[in-house]
Write a structure and sequence with these properties.
The chain is mainly beta. 7% of the residues lie in helices and 46% in strands.
Length: 509
């Protein structure tokens, strides 16, 4: 048998296994010339990981789950979010009280195995609540019709203290590499990197930190073991001795896979989750900077051995403009660069568009955004994001607290936005928008008729060029400018599977 034949078939099989199980067709006719183009089929399994939300006793957390209806998806299936192992479960240590509880029966074990959140049928969001500092990380799996585009949002409100305000994060799929530009070990920051392992065997992880002068020496971040079905959080300031205003965190997995996120807490400006930036690229879009942002700091890093020179532009409602005094930025190889852009949006919707001035050099980037003044400030992060692609979804939207931002950095685009039913009632609503090239539009997103509870927004590209999107959610406290921003990359709800034909003649080669 030819090795090329084996390699191609193995590659297609591996792709289906990673993103979801998919059928391979076998037409009646045989021969390579009868095989049709690759088909896009719904994935059949999705994993999502939610980090432990807070160490504050004042934390109030909500989880919202939603699967958009996908044509061709299995009518059967299920999804669930369950708690990861606690610290004593990871180490095998048990208190006397727990030993006595085990002797009393299995009631506690049955409670531990019960899902924290059990999603409803596709098309209907469901929410769950948690309080306090002991809420664990969650490990989620969706199968069958619940898997394509499954989205879970974790939103936490902290009334006071370091990191007070609104903290939101999209629960993410496990992977083997993550980049987090925008972290910090400054005096007023308390940043943790959270690692969650969904698998049956331990994962081994390396954490590398890069500051303004390059890589920071640390042996503590090497070979970190994350036990099976468990989560670890590490304080960045314990990994290195140096204070750094701007850090890039690189999480690389030696064995296994993990979910990763950075929780950035500030003594003065609240805090939020910093999610992984899009993979290193020469062209980047950071979508949906709030129009009332009072401070915007851009943080960049290039992992290669070549400096990057980038043109900085703001996609405004009227087109691409160059921020005065920040026309270009140089990112030195292996070093983190921070640039204060101030009130760059000046009261209008805006997104940053970064492009190379000459040769293409891969870069990762994120912005830290501050809203409010004085003691009423709050901060959030927007990483460079991939386009919406075919479809993307964001959940936990609220009728008067949600802003949807759409950006077409190049060619104009037409998109359809669908609001789901509410978690407690309401009917779906749909609107279509046209976004001109080089602009950002904060749109009046549809709201379900008769809405009760929160709802999901699903964005689908209809035509045109690449479109980027984000959602800003503001808090209920009018005295503090609390907010959180989530980007909307493609949900990868479908996978391309080649139509392979049966050819028994390969057995004779």
């Amino acid at each position: 048998m030819k090795r090329t034949t084996l390699s191609l078939f193995a590659g297609a099989t591996a792709l289906a296994a990673v993103t979801g199980f998919a059928a391979v067709s076998t037409p009646d006719a045989t021969g390579a010339d009868t095989a049709g183009p690759a088909a896009r089929l719904p994935v059949e399994r999705t994993s999502l990981l939610c980090p432990a939300p807070s160490t504050s006793d004042l934390a109030e957390t909500s989880y919202t789950s939603f699967t958009p209806v996908t044509k061709g998806a299995d009518e059967k299936g299920e999804a669930a979010l369950t708690a990861g192992a606690t610290k004593d479960e990871e180490t095998g240590e048990k208190s006397e009280e727990k030993k006595q509880g085990e002797k009393a029966g299995t009631e506690k074990d049955e409670k531990a195995e019960k899902p924290v959140l059990q999603p409803k049928a596709p098309g209907t969001p469901v929410t769950g609540k948690a309080s306090g500092a002991d809420t664990p990380a969650l490990i989620g799996t969706a199968e069958g019709g619940y898997a394509p585009g499954w989205t879970v949002q974790q939103t936490t409100e902290v009334a006071a203290g370091t990191g007070r305000g609104l903290q939101g994060v999209n629960c993410t799929a496990p992977d083997t590499e993550f980049w987090f530009p925008g972290a910090s070990t400054a005096t007023d920051r308390t940043d943790y990197v959270h690692l969650t392992n969904p698998d049956d065997s331990a994962a081994v992880v390396d954490i590398e930190l890069y500051g303004k002068d390059g890589a920071l020496k640390s042996t503590v971040g090497e070979g970190i073991t994350v036990p099976a079905h468990a989560s670890e959080s590490l304080l960045l300031s314990t990994l290195v001795d140096e204070e750094q205003t701007d850090l890039t965190v690189h999480v690389g997995v030696r064995s296994g896979r993990v979910g990763a996120a950075v929780q950035a807490l500030d003594d003065k400006t609240g805090g939020d989750w910093l999610t992984a930036a899009a993979d290193p690229a020469s062209d980047l879009v950071l979508p949906g900077i709030p129009k009332d942002a009072t401070a915007v700091r851009l943080v960049l890093f290039t992992p290669g051995g070549t400096d990057a020179d980038l043109k900085v532009r703001l996609a405004s409602p009227s087109g691409l403009i160059t921020p005065a005094g920040h026309e270009t930025v140089r990112v030195k190889a292996g070093m983190t660069t921070g640039v204060d852009l101030g009130e760059v949006t000046r009261g209008e919707a805006g997104s940053l568009v970064l492009t190379p001035t000459s040769g293409s050099v891969p870069v990762v980037a994120a912005v830290r955004v501050v809203r409010g003044k004085g003691g009423e400030q709050e901060s959030a992060f927007i990483p460079a994001s991939d386009p919406v692609g075919a479809r993307a979804t964001v959940v936990d939207n609220r009728a008067k607290s949600t802003t949807l931002s759409l950006t077409a950095p190049g060619k104009g685009a037409k998109v359809k936005v669908t609001a789901s039913a509410g978690t407690e009632g309401g009917t779906t609503a749909t609107k279509t928008y046209t976004v001109e090239g080089g602009t950002t539009q904060d749109v009046d997103a549809p709201v379900p008729a008769g809405l009760k509870g929160t709802y999901a927004l699903t964005v689908e590209t209809v035509s045109g060029g690449p479109l980027h999107a984000s959602r800003t959610l503001t808090g209920q406290d009018d005295d503090v400018a609390s907010f959180t921003v989530q980007t909307l990359p493609d949900d990868r709800g479908t996978v391309s599977v080649p139509n392979a034909d049966e050819d028994l003649s390969v057995l004779q080669r």
